[in-house]
Design brief:
The structure is a single chain. The protein is α/β, with parallel strands linked by helices and 180 residues long. The chain is 27% helix and 27% strand. It has a single domain, classed as 2,3-Dihydroxybiphenyl 1,2-Dioxygenase, domain 1 (Roll), CATH 3.10.180.10. Strands 1-4-3-2 form a four-stranded mixed beta sheet, with helices on one face. Strands 5-8-7-6 form a four-stranded mixed beta sheet, with helices on one face.
């Protein structure tokens, strides 16, 4: 599927998912309860409900450099260290957890390549547009590589406002707010 077709499909899915769904009673978790695209191939009537992403764990090439980067970022975003031990640290905001660990020696020199199999980007959903702008200022003040400055991305199915930036290994991160 070409990029244009992919974006058209994303807009179609996004418009259905975002415009036709209601937040669950646990809206603070950011979980959606309807707007699922597709059919029910299992025939189950008691569908499993995912209520959020519990954690993401990434391997980093230089643990100390990444720990410093994520430590500043997560302090700004209101995360606290949940655990740490040799070569691993995990942060949480009581909704999700983000964990970094030192990559195996044999893989450290390979580095991250966007578009290869694996992690493409991670989006932090922020509560308001101003938070995206505040994050952008934080990124500039801390000389963090900006991939795309804040703007509206209406092609994502609505008033989607986001800033894209990179971690020390080049992993793409996003601060976003989906308006009404």
């Amino acid at each position: 599927m070409g990029e244009t077709a992919w974006k058209r499909n994303l807009v179609s899915i996004g418009a259905h998912r975002w415009n036709n769904c209601a937040r669950s009673s646990t809206a603070e978790h950011g979980a959606y309860t309807s707007g699922v695209v597709g059919s029910n191939p299992t025939g189950r009537t008691d569908m499993i409900k995912v209520v959020g992403i519990d954690h993401l764990e990434i391997s980093v090439s230089n643990f100390q450099r990444s720990r410093k980067f994520y430590g500043k970022l997560f302090k700004f975003l209101g995360f606290k260290i949940l655990f740490q031990f040799r070569g691993v640290v995990g942060w949480t905001n009581k909704i999700t957890r983000y964990i970094i660990k030192q990559a195996l020696v044999k893989y450290r020199r390979h580095g991250y390549v966007k578009g290869m199999i694996g992690f493409h980007h991670y989006a932090f959903e922020l509560s308001k547009k101003k938070d995206v702008d505040d994050l952008y200022r934080f990124l500039l003040e801390n000389k963090i590589k900006i991939l795309d400055p804040p703007k509206f991305y209406y092609e994502y199915g609505g008033p989607y406002y986001a800033v894209f930036f990179a971690d020390p290994d080049g992993l793409k991160l996003e601060g976003m707010h989906f308006g009404k």
